[in-house]
Automatic annotation (TrEMBL):
The keyword Protein transport applies. It is a multi-pass membrane protein. Keywords: Cell inner membrane, Cell membrane, Membrane, Peptide transport, Protein transport, Transmembrane, Transmembrane helix, Transport. The chain crosses the membrane at residues 41-61, 103-124, 136-156, 168-190, 237-257, 277-296. This is Oligopeptide transport system permease protein OppC. Belongs to the binding-protein-dependent transport system permease family. OppBC subfamily. Its main location: membrane. Residues 304-336 are annotated as: Disordered. InterPro entries: BP-dependent_transpt_permease (IPR050366), MetI-like (IPR000515), MetI-like_sf (IPR035906), OppC_N (IPR025966).
Amino acid sequence: MTNLNTIDPAAVTGGANIEINDVVIAKSSIIIRRFLRNRTAVVGLAVFLALTMFSFLGGLFTSWDKETIDPFNIGMPPSSEHLLGTSQAGIDLYALTVEGTRISILIGLVVGLISVLIAAVYGCTMAYFGGKVDTVMLFILEALIMMPALLVVAVATSGGGNGLQQSLPSWLLLIIVLLVFSWMGTARLIRSLSMSLMTRDFVKAAQYMGIPPRRIVWRHLVPNIGSLLVLDITRGITGAILAEVAFSFIGIGIKVPDVSLGVLIGQATSQVSTFPWMFWVPLTVMFLLTGSLAMMNDGLRDAFDPSSSSVGRAKRGGPEKSEPGKTHEPAGKKTP
C-alpha cells in the first residue's frame, strides 16, 4: 500500500499507472487532477472554450452578418441595434468579430496540431534511423530554418490574384504557409530527446524482437515525449494566432473579404481615436485568446511536472494525519 505523500516523482513520469491506497490510478487521471487543481489554468481553459463557442455560435444571437450593410448606421458606436457598433462601411462589428475570432481560432488549432504532428514524425524518424538518413534530414531541416518566412508569406498571399490566390481562400493559403515554417524548431528538440530514448533498454529490446520501425516510433518514442508535444500544441496555437494577427496587420496575411482579428485590428489602427470601438473590441478578444492559452500552458507544464508544487498537494485523510515534529503512539502507552 502506497501513501499519496510518499510517491516517488519518477514513478509518475515513468509508469502508466500509480497505486495509491490499493487503488490504481492512471497517469492521465493524475495529470488531469493536477491540472484541475490549478485555478489559473482552469480559468484559462474556461475562457478559451467560451471564445471558441462564441466564434461558432455567436452568429445565432444577431440578425446581421459580415456582408450586410446598414446604411442608416455607418460608423456608429455600440447601441441596442448593434451591440458592438458598426464599421465605417456600416457592417455590424459583432458579426465581424464572430467571424474574425472563428478564423483566428481555426488557424491556430490547425497549425498548432498539424505542425506538432509533423515535428514528432520528422524528429523521431531522424533519431531512429540516424547515420546518413539523419544527416540528410537534418540538412533539409536547417535549410528550411534559414528560409525567410516573411518573404515567403508575402509572395504566397500577395500574388496579384494569380495562381493559388484565385483557387484558395486567403486564410487557407496562410495556414499552408504557416505549416511550412512552424514545425522545424520543435522537430530539432524532439530529435534530441528521441536520440536519448534510443539508448533505453525497452527500445533496444523492441529492435531485437524485430518490431517494425513505424511501430517503435509510434509506440515507444512518441508516447515518451507526450508531455512535450502537449505543451508544444498550446504554444503552437498561440504562435499561429499571433503570426496571423501580425501578418494580417501589415497586409500580407488574410485578405478582404475574409475577416480575422488581425484584419480588424489593422483596419482600425489608423482611426483608433475616431472609432475606438472598432480597435479595442478585436484587440480585447485577441488578448483574451492568447492570455487564456498562456494560462493553460502554464497549468499543463505544472501538471506534467511531478516536482512542481505550484498546484498544491493532495490532502491526507484519516486519523493518521500528524503535524511536523510529532509522532503517534498506540493507545494505552505513555512515553516515560
